[in-house]
């Protein structure tokens, strides 16, 4: 799987490059979720769309022209594993037999989130369970980590409630059976492209934390070509109102007349940072599209305003690329407990282990000349030049370039009666 490197504007629609049609996965019904089969084809770099297709404004035309509107709107989340039943969880915690606990429920001795429980009730991670008014210790497996890739169009805000009643990205997302979606960063009203959502706060925080300096790649259209001096200034550092900022790299992307395209990378997520950097050298941005976030590429064929759920393979690749360790869905998590001294000691040991893992991760990033550098005062300094290989010119793999094609192929393989 490969990541593109640029961000085009509000009309950018994703399509596959016409090369190597034999390797392209068959088309399935539109943006339906997927489970990637182990034998699924892995898209090579040559198969990833090039920058010209990114800025053409017709990127998803070839992928979607055969789809009907009904098929395009058919987007469904993968089913969530059933939550455990209350009486089973309490019996496993050693409070009594299942029959005894069912009797206690009938007698009104058990509450869930301060409401009387009922026989057959299912519970989930985070529920506050009490027996005779006392909190009890239970173990519940956390829900699986889920990630959505969304192709944000111009005109939507990344907020749950907008005081100006503008359309929000959250209105298009499917409802989670457990938890809620968290956006990984933001895109402003007039910016479009890749926006990630996850139900895991740990993953979202790791992807956004400036300590890891995950690259974001954009396609930017500006009025007038940059001079050599302006490019140098933008990559070495420009003073903005909230501090110094710079691009990791700037590459020419073509264009016609006064409209010039550039491919830029940046390792921070400050408000309107890309636009403000260009404005600092007197260039107005007319279109802006995010193509990549860290290791995740905007899936080819994903139309503006549409989402797709990443399969387990892509989620694990994204988690690994972010350098985070998340609890496995099958491993229960303890909640509703009082921390003892031994618990606190265990937490300190875990913190030391996590710190060591973090240092190893950062050393690896520094050795590749692509990560943040630790300064003498123990802060992190982001690199001023990009060391990310160009995914359109190298064999480096990314996540997401063929995700939608594989989802469609998987959906098409399913018998009609099971859709």
Automatic annotation (TrEMBL):
Keyword Ubl conjugation: no
Biased composition (Basic residues): 363-372
Enzyme's top EC category: isomerase
NCBIfam families per UniProt: pseudouridine synthase
Lineage start: Bacteria, Pseudomonadati, Pseudomonadota, Betaproteobacteria, Burkholderiales
Record keywords: Isomerase, RNA-binding
GO cellular component: cytosol
Gene Ontology annotations of biological process type: enzyme-directed rRNA pseudouridine synthesis
Amino acid composition bias (Polar residues), ranges on this chain: 374-388
CDD domains: PseudoU_synth_RluB, S4
Stated name of the protein: Pseudouridine synthase
GO molecular-function terms, A-Z: RNA binding; rRNA pseudouridine synthase activity
InterPro entries: PsdUridine_s_RsuA/RluB/E/F_cat (IPR042092), PsdUridine_synth_cat_dom_sf (IPR020103), PsdUridine_synth_RsuA/RluA (IPR006145), PsdUridine_synth_RsuA/RluB/E/F (IPR000748), PsdUridine_synth_RsuA/RluB_CS (IPR018496), RsuA_PseudoU_synthase (IPR050343), S4_RNA-bd (IPR002942), S4_RNA-bd_sf (IPR036986)
Gene3D superfamilies xrefs: Alpha-L RNA-binding motif (3.30.70.1560), Pseudouridine synthase I, catalytic domain, N-terminal subdomain (3.30.70.580), RNA-binding S4 domain (3.10.290.10)
Domain RNA-binding S4 intervals: 84-146
Region (Disordered): 1-36, 326-419
PROSITE patterns in the record: PSI_RSU, S4
Enzyme Commission no: 5.4.99.-
Superkingdom per UniProt: Bacteria
Similarity field: Belongs to the pseudouridine synthase RsuA family.
Native source species: Comamonas kerstersii
């Amino acid at each position: 799987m490969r990541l593109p490197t640029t961000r085009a504007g509000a009309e950018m629609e994703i399509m596959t490059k016409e090369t190597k049609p034999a390797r392209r996965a068959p088309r399935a019904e539109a943006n339906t979720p997927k489970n990637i089969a182990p034998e699924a084809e892995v898209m090579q770099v040559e198969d990833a769309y090039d920058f010209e297709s990114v800025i053409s404004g017709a990127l998803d035309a070839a992928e979607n022209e055969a789809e009907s509107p009904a098929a395009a709107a058919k987007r469904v989340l993968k089913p969530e594993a059933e939550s455990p039943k209350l009486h089973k969880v309490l019996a496993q915690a050693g409070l009594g037999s299942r029959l005894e606990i069912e009797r206690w429920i009938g007698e009104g001795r058990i509450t869930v989130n301060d409401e009387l429980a009922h026989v057959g009730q299912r519970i989930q991670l985070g529920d506050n369970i009490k027996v005779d008014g006392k909190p009890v210790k239970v173990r519940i497996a956390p829900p699986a980590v889920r990630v959505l890739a969304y192709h944000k169009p111009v005109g939507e805000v990344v907020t749950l409630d907008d005081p100006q009643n503008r359309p929000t990205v959250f209105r298009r997302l499917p409802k989670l059976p457990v938890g809620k979606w968290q956006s990984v960063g933001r895109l402003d009203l007039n910016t479009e492209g890749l926006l990630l959502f996850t139900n895991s706060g740990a993953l979202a925080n790791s992807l956004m934390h400036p300590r890891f300096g995950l690259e974001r790649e954009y396609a930017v259209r500006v009025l007038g070509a940059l001079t050599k001096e302006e490019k140098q200034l933008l990559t070495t550092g420009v003073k903005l109102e909230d501090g110094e900022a710079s691009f990791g790299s700037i590459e020419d992307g073509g264009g016609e007349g006064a409209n010039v395209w550039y491919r830029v990378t940046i390792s921070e997520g400050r408000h309107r940072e890309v636009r403000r950097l260009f404005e600092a050298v007197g260039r107005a941005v007319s279109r802006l599209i995010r193509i990549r976030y860290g290791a995740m590429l905007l899936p080819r064929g994903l139309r503006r305003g549409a989402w797709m759920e990443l399969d387990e393979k892509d989620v694990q690749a994204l988690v690994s690329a972010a350098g985070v360790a998340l609890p496995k869905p099958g491993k229960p998590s303890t909640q509703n407990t009082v921390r003892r001294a031994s618990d606190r000691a265990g937490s300190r040991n875990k913190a030391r282990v996590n710190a060591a893992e973090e240092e190893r991760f950062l050393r690896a990033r520094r050795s590749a000349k692509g990560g943040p550098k630790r300064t003498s005062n123990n802060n992190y300094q982001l690199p001023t030049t990009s060391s990310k290989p160009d995914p359109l010119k190298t064999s480096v793999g990314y996540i997401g370039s063929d995700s939608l094609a594989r989802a469609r192929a998987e959906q098409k393989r399913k018998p009609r009666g099971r859709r």
